[in-house]
Design goal:
alpha+beta; Helix Hairpins; Heat Shock Protein 90; 3 domains; five-stranded antiparallel β-sheet; five-stranded mixed β-sheet; rod-shaped; kinase; Sensor-like_sf; ATP binding; EC 2.7.13.3; histidine kinase
Length: 465
């Protein structure tokens, strides 16, 4: 507000001074022009009588016409003698100095402002030559005290000052209003930012304009929304990390407890036969292998999430990868006497993907289908092209997934059937790894399932050219 006021007052001061100067100059120039016009008219009216030496007629004309004159008038003859005046009759008969009449008797119009020997105050006067038959025979002096002009200018100056005073009042009101309109949302933002620093992200700035301040308020609200989302995400991640640590601890504790128990039994010789001893060793070996798988899966998942594994993305024939994945799982498929039906589109295009990672996804999903599909049943693998993506679906005839657990199956260590999964040696990280790999390929994963009817796990990959 102070800055606005100073700028506007300074501008008014400059404009007021400049306006006063211009008006003063204009007024002087205008008065001089009127005096010159009046002098020329008087010159034409008295030139004949002055030439003929009829001074009484000249004096009579001047006295009878003075009420029509703008200023005071002198009539001067060719010798510089004042013949007649409209005022100061005592000057009649006074001879003017040659220097004062020299220029006018050369046929020039003379203009002067300031003091003169014949006046006690500054005046503005002009001298117009009286010319008859191409000869200067006298001059008309028209003058007016500057005091009268100054009075008029003083009134004008007062008017400017009054206008400036009103402008100042309006300026103060305007600057106060503008400053308030600017500062109010800024103060609001300051208050909200302090609240945000203390964890309160609920309040927002009300936007009443589309100017720069309104845009700033809009950006501030956007920032607050993003911060709130980020903090919520961080809090969620922190909660997930706590759960992750708890889950890892639980997953590690079970095999370690088992290993500890059997190692103590072996150390203390607590077994009935050599067969029992071999069984204990086998259990310890199985649990150690399980721990290794768990650690490897955790490391693998962490590297994928952090982008530490570079994906070798190139055109890939899904048919080849699917058949190769099935071939790797044939022993388990034969063990359960399962049937694998592969139903792929004939015109299936290449996909943009990393061969090893896509094979890892397929092995994980088909392996789960093998685990949960009853003996002698069928697992179906199908594909289709939809827009610019290739969809792959793995369908099993397992027990299905409860509806309230479908959204959680992609989380780390989530197990629908915990006992059965542990028996199979699963780590509970397979689907989490699948999701992260597909995300790295800019694809999506999903599941459809009904209790007692089985499940369909699917993923999508970008189609190549």
């Amino acid at each position: 507000m102070i800055l606005f006021t100073i700028i506007i007052l300074f501008t008014l001061f400059i404009l007021g001074g400049l306006l006063s100067y211009l008006v003063k100059g204009y007024y002087y120039d205008s008065t001089e022009k009127k005096f010159i016009d009046q002098g020329n008219k008087i010159s034409k009216l008295v030139q004949k009588s002055l030439y003929e030496g009829n001074y009484d007629e000249t004096i009579s004309f001047l006295r009878n016409s003075q009420r029509f004159f703008e200023g005071n008038v002198w009539i001067v003859d060719s010798k510089g003698l004042i013949l007649a005046t409209t005022q100061q009759k005592e000057l009649q008969g006074v001879r003017l100095n040659k220097e004062e009449v020299k220029q006018v008797f050369q046929g020039k119009i003379v203009k002067k402002r300031g003091f003169s020997n014949y006046f006690d105050e500054p005046v503005l006067f002009v001298a117009v030559p009286i010319i008859f038959s191409k000869k200067v025979i006298g001059a008309v002096f028209v003058y007016s005290p500057l005091a009268g002009i100054t009075s008029t200018l003083s009134d004008l100056k007062d008017l400017i000052q009054y206008a400036a005073f009103i402008a100042i009042i309006l300026t103060l009101l305007l600057s106060f209003t503008l400053s308030k309109s600017f500062s109010k949302p800024l103060k609001k933002m300051q208050k909200i930012s302090l609240n945000m620093a203390h964890g309160d992200f609920d309040e927002r700035v009300k936007i009443n304009s589309k100017d720069e301040v309104g845009q700033l308020a809009s950006s501030f609200n956007y920032l607050a929304d993003k911060l709130q989302e980020t903090i919520a995400s961080l809090q969620n991640k922190e909660e997930l990390q706590r759960r992750f640590v708890a889950d890892v601890s639980h997953e590690l504790r079970t095999p370690l407890t088992s290993i500890q128990g059997f190692v103590k039994a072996l150390r203390d010789g607590v077994y009935d036969s050599k067969a029992d001893k071999e069984e204990y060793y086998q259990i310890v070996l199985t649990e150690v292998k399980r721990l290794i798988r768990l650690v490897n899966d955790l490391l693998n998942l962490s590297q994928i999430e952090l982008g530490q594994i570079k994906m070798d993305i190139k055109g890939l024939d899904l048919k080849v990868v699917i058949r190769r994945s099935i071939r790797n799982l044939l022993p388990r498929i034969k063990e359960k006497d399962l049937k694998i039906r592969i139903d792929l589109s004939k015109d299936l295009p290449l996909v943009l993907a990393d061969r090893d990672r896509v094979e890892q996804v397929l092995i994980n999903l088909v392996s789960n289908a093998i685990d949960f599909t009853p003996k002698g049943e069928e697992i179906k693998i199908s594909s289709e092209l939809k827009d610019d993506r290739v969809l792959v679906m793995i369908e099993d005839n397992g027990p299905g997934i409860p509806k309230d657990e479908i959204d959680d199956i992609w989380n780390r260590f989530h197990k629908v059937d915990k006992a059965r999964t542990r028996d199979r040696g699963g780590t509970g990280l397979g689907l989490s790894i699948v999701r992260e790999i597909i995300r790295q390929h800019q694809g999506e994963v999903w599941v459809e399932s009904k209790i007692g009817e089985g499940s369909i796990f699917g993923f999508s990959l970008l189609a190549g050219d």
